[in-house]
Amino acid sequence: MNKPTNRRKGLFFVITGAILWGVGGTVAQKLFQQYAIDVDWLVTTRLLIAGFLLLTVQFFLKERSQILGVWKNRRTAIQLIIFGLLGMLAVQYTYMASISHGNAAVATLLQYLAPVMIIVYLILRKQTVLTRQDLLTVSLALVGCFFLLTNGSISGLSVPTSAIIWGVLSGLALAFYTLYAIPLLTQYDSLVVVGWAMIIGGFALSFIHPPWQMDFTSLTLESYLYLVFVILFGTMIAFWFYIESLQSLSPKETSLLGSLEPLAAVVTTVIWLKEPFGFFQWIGTACIIGMILVLALNKKSSSTKSPSQ
């Protein structure tokens, strides 16, 4: 297959994956608000099924020996368990909780503050120095958050406080998730690391809300279709496509096109779910997406690229 064809294929994969991630959050909001689906149950089920499917893809299409090989080294196994609990589970739960208390648009945009948190962390640890681009990035994030959360009015918040708290925690969790994953991803395929992390996180949450404890008779055909979309398309296929795009596109290009995720979340939340979104909130959204683009265009941006969401 020639390079132009490979590139078109890569562009299709990353654009589709990013859009599916964004729309998946909006569909989850629909499940929470219209069908009263429990956050704990959805996160548990989503992680277990998507993790199993990702390992299945690894088994049939990639190096299958890594699936069990990751557990043969004690240190690596401990790192994977920590990543699954404090990384994967924390990211997924806080993100879904923010959606449940607010909406998918705000939750996704707040989660995308993670790169700024990573920059601040690295500067405080003196692992990097403050640059003009860092100042621009942080400024865009702060201005964007102000407009997003207040809609330009200092007298009150336009988003529930609980949604903001969960959203900020989601950004913190994603920052940890991104940094902690680096040593694991240098040794094993992303599908193996993330697949097992999902299963570990889902298994741990099963003790709080077992996936079989659900009144399935109360669900409609429409709600089942939404569940399938969130688990299959919004999680498993979205991640798989993103990883496949790296075979023919540079990390910079995938990061840049990955900014379609928050845009897709905002557009579908406003148009499909008819969530109110003020003029200044659109300005805030533009600032945060602008921040993502600045990071993606930076030649060093790939060093803080997340393996998945």
List its traits.
309 residues; mainly alpha; 0% strand
Describe the protein in words.
- The chain has 309 residues and is an all-alpha fold.
- 75% of the residues lie in helices and 0% in strands.
- The model is unreliable at 301-305 (pLDDT under 50).
Low-pLDDT windows of residues: 301-305
Largest sheet: none
- Number of separate helices: 13
* Secondary structure: helix percent: over 70%
Class per helix and strand makeup:
mainly alpha
Strand content: under 5%
Order of helices and strands: HHHHHHHHHHHHH
**Total DSSP E strands:** 0
Rounded mean pLDDT score: 89
Q: How many angstroms separate the termini?
A: 30 Å
- CA-based shape: globular
Radius of gyration: 19 Å
What would you say about this model in short?
The chain is mainly alpha-helical. 75% of the residues lie in helices and 0% in strands.
Chain-wise SSE layout:
Layout: H1 3-34, H2 39-61, H3 65-69, H4 74-101, H5 104-111, H6 114-124, H7 132-150, H8 161-185, H9 190-206, H10 221-245, H11 251-257, H12 260-271, H13 279-297
Helix pairs in contact: 1-10, 1-12, 2-4, 2-9, 2-10, 4-5, 4-8, 4-9, 5-8, 5-12, 6-8, 7-13, 11-13
